[in-house]
Specification:
By secondary structure, the protein is of the alpha/beta class. The protein folds into three domains: about 120 residues, Rossmann fold, CATH 3.40.50.12160; about 230 residues, pyruvate-formate lyase- activating enzyme; about 55 residues, Nucleic acid-binding proteins (OB fold (Dihydrolipoamide Acetyltransferase, E2P), Beta Barrel). The chain contains 13 helices and 18 strands. Strands 2-1-3-4-5-6 form a six-stranded parallel β-sheet, sandwiched between helices. The protein has a five-stranded mixed β-barrel with strand order 14-15-16-18-17. The protein has a four-stranded mixed β-sheet with strand order 8-7-9-10, sandwiched between helices. Strand 3, helix 2 and strand 4 form a beta-alpha-beta unit. Helix 7 runs parallel beside helix 8 and helix 12 runs parallel beside helix 13.
Length: about 425
């Protein structure tokens, strides 16, 4: 049958979609664009913000409108946390964030039998990591390796622990086997991903740490570049940096979650660090790696955030000199502690988001201009028109350079300038 899949949200969702696509193809089904006709539409949802919920609902309604006779199946974080909302959207199959292979069995059965099915478990009761085949999405040159699921941080604003359950880790031997396969399949970069990869290993015998995994992955990766997903500040220690800097394949790009640069706000968020510990992490990265790109997330307008607290956050952000930032106005997640706190008015959140975004753009531009004159190792991924090819440096900055037939090649590239938020480069002699 013809199956169309639409994916919202994080790299973990993208990874799980890629695994489902691989399995559906193996079973003989045909993957088809979501915008066209299909026998079944799958919406892999996100619920990290209210906007994510809205987008999930929009895509579900769009699928039903496009093909009233088709099966519409929904999985991911939104039905896991808001099953009653999804049940009201005229869908045939409702599943959550667990057992993706069983979900595909149910999808096939739904097409055959046309009987509505709800298949949800209690995420907080999960104790076993669901191993899924690693790989890349269609036409991509980098592959993702999911090594961890779940989170037990219970930040006061976050619904994800309730959607994903406790920490479960992919064992080292299984991770190494997946890396060998991906290398053989011709990928040039591997992204280690998970819901909270800083907690990898805490449920495994001997409680290995994340750098133990990274070293094992880099050994198996050979000449593949290895990139880390989002990290918690506690991960960045002298030992982590010393061992990481000794790995030539590890990309010097570290996404270090911040959320607020004010200690009082961090306390209300139930984050497990303060600005002093975060500043120490940034300093260690800058000391141990050659001009790393430190990127982050920021929530503005968190409940109780005063103008003074917001100003302190902007000052802290400027001190950290982030290469790139993602700005999120606080979004109420029903059932979380923050939902019951005193809320910041919407217009105030919007204004602060604009101010934070302006600062983020300023810092991003400064980082890009500091790259001019350097030679970066660029993985070229796709043509960009006008004889140019686009790729990403080891610091994850986007690079444009003249050249043909560069896709899936890693080439040293001398950075010559900046244009429209992108780096311009020239291929360097090998």
């Amino acid at each position: 049958m013809n199956i169309a899949i639409y994916t919202l949200g994080c790299k973990v969702n993208q990874y799980e979609t890629a695994a489902m696509e691989r399995e559906l193809t193996r079973r003989g089904h045909v993957l088809t664009p979501f915008e066209g006709p299909a026998d079944a539409y799958v919406v892999n949802t996100c619920s990290v913000t209210a906007v994510s919920d809205k987008k999930s609902r929009q895509m579900i309604r769009r699928a039903r409108k496009r093909s009233p006779a088709a099966v519409v199946a929904v999985c991911g974080c939104y039905p896991q946390t808001h099953p009653e909302d999804v049940a009201g959207l005229d869908v045939d199959l409702i599943a959550g964030t667990g057992d993706r292979m069983k979900f595909l069995d149910l999808l096939e059965a739904a097409v055959r039998e046309r009987a509505p099915v709800v298949a949800l478990d209690r995420a907080l009761d999960r104790r076993t990591f669901e191993a899924l085949p690693a790989g890349g999405l269609a036409a991509r040159t980098r592959a993702m390796l999911k090594v961890e699921d779940g989170c037990v941080n219970f930040c006061s604003y976050c619904i994800i622990p309730y959607a994903r359950g406790p920490v479960r880790s992919l064992p080292l031997a299984a991770a190494a086997a997946e890396v060998r396969r991906l290398r053989e399949e011709g990928y040039r970069e591997l992204v280690i991903t998970g819901i909270e990869i800083s907690s990898w290993g805490r449920d495994l015998p001997g409680r290995p740490g994340l750098m133990d995994l990274v070293e094992a992955v880099c050994r198996e990766a050979g000449d593949l570049r290895v990139r880390l997903g989002s990290l918690e500040p506690r991960t960045i220690t002298e030992d982590f940096c010393r061992r990481g800097a000794a790995l030539p394949g590890l990309c010097p790009h570290f996404h270090l979650s911040l959320q607020s640069g004010c200690d009082a706000t961090l306390g209300r968020m139930n984050r497990k660090y303060d600005t002093g510990r975060y500043r120490e992490s940034v300093a260690l990265l800058n000391a141990c790696f050659d001009r790393p790109a430190v990127t982050t997330d920021l929530i503005v307008g968190f409940p109780g955030e005063t103008e003074a607290e917001f100003a302190a956050t902007l000052d802290f952000v400027r001190q950290c000199a982030f290469a790139e930032m993602h700005i999120f106005p606080y979004s109420i997640r029903p059932g979380t502690p923050a939902a019951a706190m005193e809320q910041v008015p919407g217009p105030v959140k919007d204004r602060r988001a604009g101010e934070a975004a302006a600062l983020a753009a300023e810092l991003h531009a400064a980082y890009l201009h500091a790259c001019v004159g350097r030679t970066l190792s660029v993985l070229y991924e796709q043509p960009a028109g006008g004889g140019l090819c686009q790729g990403h440096g080891e610091n994850y900055m986007t690079v444009l350079a003249a050249g043909e037939n560069l896709r899936n090649q890693v080439r040293p590239t001398r950075i010559t300038g900046v244009r429209d938020g992108l780096l311009l480069g020239e291929l360097a002699e090998v």
